[in-house]
Amino acid sequence: MLTAGIDLAAEDSNTAVAWIRWTAKGGMLENLIVGADDTELLHTVSTADKVGIDCPLGWPVPFVDFLVSHHRGELAVAADLSGRAWRRSLVWRRTDKVTHTLIGRPPLTVAADRIAHMAMRCAALQARLAEDGQRVDRTGTGTLVEVYPAASLKKWGLPYRGYKGSRNGTALGELVDKLITAAPWLHLGAFERECRSTDHAIDAVVAALTARAAAVGQATRPGPADLATAAVEGWIAVPNEPLASLIDRSARRTT
C-alpha cells in the first residue's frame, strides 16, 4: 500500500507532500516534497492508494445558504445580529463539531478563518480531479480523505501544538523524536532532516499516517445520519486506534 499526505497551503512554497510505502514490517517515507505545485498534487491523488489532505473539502451548508441569500437580497434578519451562537451556527461544519467533541478543541473554521484561501485552492483541485474523471467523495470513502494532523497527533498521544513556525524548532524536533519512539517501524530515512526543519513536512507525514488509518478502517467515518451532510461539507478522519495498530495483524492483509 502507498499512502500520501498533503499539507495544503494557499501557495506552493508552504505545501508539502509525503509518500509512505507500507509493508508488513512498517512504513518507509519514500518521498517528501516541500513546495509542491498543483501538478504534483493531482499526480499524487491519481497514483497513491489513499491520500490524506489537511484542508477542508467543503464549506458549512448554513454558511453557503447565508451567502447565497445575502447575495440575492433575500436574507432573513436574525433575532440577534451580534449573537455568538448565531454566528457559530453558520461557520462550523458538522465534522468540526464532532472533531471538537473527540479531541477537546475545534479545527479552524473554513468559513471565517485564515484557512479559507487554501480551501479555495482545494476546491479548484477537486474540480480538476473531476475533469480528469476522478471525482472526490468528500465523505472520505474514495482516494482522498480529509485529515487534521493536530487531531491525529493528540489521539496518538503525541505533541499536537506549539511546534509550528520558525521560532518553535526545538518543539518540532521533540515531536519528531517522540514520533520515532512511538513508531519505531516508521522509517523517515533521508527525509528525517527535512521533517525536523519545517512543520509542513511533518504535518504531511502525519497526514499520510492518518490516510493509512482511514484506509484500514481505523479512523472515524460519518454515520448514516451525517452522511448526506458530509458528502457536501467534507468529513475529518480522526484515528480511533493506537498508532501501533497501523501495522498490527488485522491491518497487514491490506499492505
UniProtKB/TrEMBL annotation:
It comes from the Bacteria. It holds the Pfam family DUF429. This is DUF429 domain-containing protein. It comes from Micromonospora aurantiaca (nom. illeg.).
